[in-house]
Amino acid sequence: MKAQLRLYQPTRQAMAQGRVPATLWARRESGVWVHASSYCLRGLEVTRAVWGATLGRSYVVITSVVDGRHTNPKSDHYLGNAWDIRKRDLRVPERRLALQRLREELGEGYYVIEERTHFHAAWRPQGPAAELGA
Predict the structure, then answer these.
(1) What gap in Å lies between CA 134 and CA 122, rounded to an integer?
(2) HSE of 9 in the Cβ direction (CA atoms, 13 Å)?
(3) CA 119 to CA 99: how far, in whole Å?
(4) Which domain, by its residues, includes 104?
(5) What's the pLDDT at 77?
(6) Is the pLDDT of residue 100 over 60?
(7) Contact between 6 and 52 (Cβ < 8 Å)
(8) 130 lies in some domain
(9) How many angstroms separate the Cα of 93 from the Cα of each of 1, 54, 79, 97, 98?
(10) β partners of residue 112
(11) Where are the alpha helices (DSSP H) in the chain?
């Protein structure tokens, strides 16, 4: 099955809380425009393929790319190298399988971690090491 890539579309409640749709382009407070890197775009395509082929899902929901506010000021999102993937519609065994397959398919230079509400994936050739840019 080939999964469709869906960028997060907020509910009225999310919009009232100031959360915006995931986007591939965003204007930072400094006025500088940031876009998803080619590494991120490749990662999004791999994510779509894993959700379709491995999980049999018709779509995957990306909740953040370069948009939003992140806890780490050096976040890979701000460089256009990271994306967050909704996991709430996956059962625990599916989450484990998705995490394993995504890590395998992305390969060297990428990392994927499971956070409380989502998977965080990013291109960082030197690895997440001591300071994750989540």
Answers:
(1) 8
(2) 3
(3) 8
(4) 4-123
(5) 84
(6) yes
(7) no
(8) no
(9) 19, 12, 32, 6, 9
(10) 121
(11) 12-16, 38-53, 92-106
| Number of domains the chain contains | 1
Place of tokens 């994306």: 83
Within 10 angstroms of residue 53's Cβ, the number of other Cβ atoms is: 14
pLDDT in tens, 23-55: 566 555 556 556 788 888 899 889 999 999 999
User: Is residue 32 classed as helix, strand or coil in its secondary structure?
Assistant: coil
Specify burial of residue 105 (Cβ count, 10 A radius: 0-12, 13-18, 19+).
middle
> Which of the 8 DSSP states describes residue 113?
E
Retrieve residue 122's tokens: 């990013």
The two tokens of residue 21 are: 């749709």
Residue 16 lies in a domain: yes
Structure pTM? 0.75
In a domain, 109, yes or no: yes
Residue 43, domain member (yes or no): yes
